[in-house]
Amino acid sequence: VSAGMSELMFAQLLWIGCTLQIVQAACTEQTAGQSATTKCKTNMCNVLIGGTGDENKYCSQCSLGTDHLVDGKCVDASTDSTNNCVNTNNGGICESCAANYFMYQGGCYSTDASKPGHALCTTAPAGVCTAAAAGYFIPPGATKTDQSVVACGDATTGVTVSGKKYKGVENCASCTAPASISGEASKTEAAATCTACSSDKIVKTETTGTSCVDKTACNNGFFVDTTANPNKCTACADDNCDVCAASGANKCSKCKTSGDKIYLQKEADSQTGTCVNKAGCTGTNYIDETAKTCSACASAGTTDCTTCEKIESGVVCKECTGGTTIFGLNKKSCVSQCPENSSKQIDTCVCNDGFTPSTGSSACVATSRSVNLSTGAIAGISVAAVVVVGGLVGFLCWWFVCRGKA
């Protein structure tokens, strides 16, 4: 029994080994001393379909010029009796394809579900792909003598149709075909529009096209839109915005330091806003060159300013108009008259001696406890002092004069 089991195991291992050899030999290149018939040209097993392993490699040119390259393998012309691959130039590649076959990297591939080409194209009624499989697109204007499908991730080779190159996007897994540029003399190539990326990358959309980037690289005027499925790298809506966290206008939290609009003007009761230039920071707003912001005068503690500005000591009113033409204490407001215990000096209210502006610069407060007394209290104290002094003088007179006579 043990001997029978051993023979069975050996047979199974032999079968597995043969199967692996067959799989690995899906594309067989000609080697020295071998016949060229039905062999792929050296280093031309370079077409990958459905994966990256040896079993996914197919041929792009036959070693024997008269062979036909069908479904990624080189076959004798007599085997391809229906000329699914048209090879009249004997170059080891196909020049055009028959119905239900399409051109791809030198060979003609069937759209049959059992064939490798079905992973690229599902319909090709006249030798040209008309329905690309997932992960591929059809280049505009392709004929049966052109390669008629391109991988969405093929950002290098692509395919040239009528002198114009159409290619994919690096690391792209799903895309839409680019528009034809056949009538645009200034353009020589066009890339597909990526809709989904491979691995953990996300689609970044710019005015120049799409790309696949890491989430950490989605910055400098872009943000990761987590509301999209899959997530995508979206441009901030506000012009010249460097940092934002959501789509839509007035969502910027930091402006770029270059360009014209470098000042962040925040919305009321918000930490985000839009980017403006100096000319755009008008009305009751002021420029803060250090923070690179355009802020409301009132947010800095000023009142009723027509315009304001930031100086070394802080934000002050710059212009007063209408019925409030006088600068208040410390120029923190515009008033029609100066507060109590202050006077107008030129165009600004200044506290009288012994008084200083309050914390909010709205009133003058005494600099010591004594001057904090009311006018009535001060008058009473003065009268009392006169009475005391008068009494003391009278007593001294009586003591020295009257008693001396006695």
UniProtKB/TrEMBL annotation:
Entry-linked SMART domains: FU
Signal sequence annotation: 1-25
Membrane-spanning intervals of the chain: 377-401
Assigned keywords, A-Z: Membrane, Signal, Transmembrane, Transmembrane helix
Classification via PANTHER family: CABRIOLET.-RELATED (PTHR23275), EGF-LIKE DOMAIN-CONTAINING PROTEIN (PTHR23275:SF100)
The protein's name: Variant-specific surface protein
